[in-house]
User: What shape does this take?
Amino acid sequence: MCKPIGLDGEISPRVAWPGYAGDMRRCLLAGVVVFGCSAEPKTWAQRDRDERMAYMQEVVLPTMREIFIAYDPDRYADFSCATCHGNDAAAVDYAMPNALGPLPLDGTLEVAMARNPEMTAFMLDEVFPTMVELLDEQKYNPQSAPNGYRCVGCHLVAE
Ligand code: HEC
Ligand code: HEC
Assistant: This one.
């Protein structure tokens, strides 16, 4: 995302500074400096609590709602924060995982498949990769990304 950088992200008054009026090159240079592309938008890890709340509301909820409704419009007609966070989301301060069906750390996919092959395929194809992206994470891989994101980012860990 490209946005002006300057004082608090506002367009800096320096661009309009008359001293630059007669010197197009310096003006352009100042423009590049002032309007240069700031770094990428914040990652999930960089957001504070309020920003995370807003991101959940503005990005995560609508993105995921669309995916779940496309999968099963009847079941997910009321898709909400609680579908992921549980009905007691506020009481547990939105901690995750909280309420979704437990999955084991070892043999996660085998257990999930045995329980619900259709939902597991949907999770693997759509929900999981989308969440990985939304959180700026990497997919868990025991070799290359041992701290990567796993199904148990959302699902409780089975004892
Ligand atoms: C698709 C599932 C999903 C939906 C829908 C969802 N969230 Fe989340 N939310 C998560 C996950 C997963 C995390 C934990 C991310 C992480 O690993 O840090 C999270 C984290 C949060 C956090 C940060 C908690 C902390 O401890 O820092 C807040 C606050 C939050 N969600 C609020 C909401 C609100 C409010 C809504 C509805 C507008 C919502 N979420 C909808 C999955 C979801
Ligand atoms: C972004 C959060 C999120 C992630 C990540 C996620 N799930 Fe889910 N999962 C859900 C939600 C929401 C449901 C639907 C719950 C419902 O219908 O009430 C669900 C349902 C399921 C179900 C059917 C219900 C059950 O518990 O038997 C299975 C199986 C499942 N997920 C497996 C997985 C697997 C395997 C992964 C990792 C590849 C995964 N999920 C990752 C949110 C998530």
In short: The chain is about 40% helix and 5% strand.
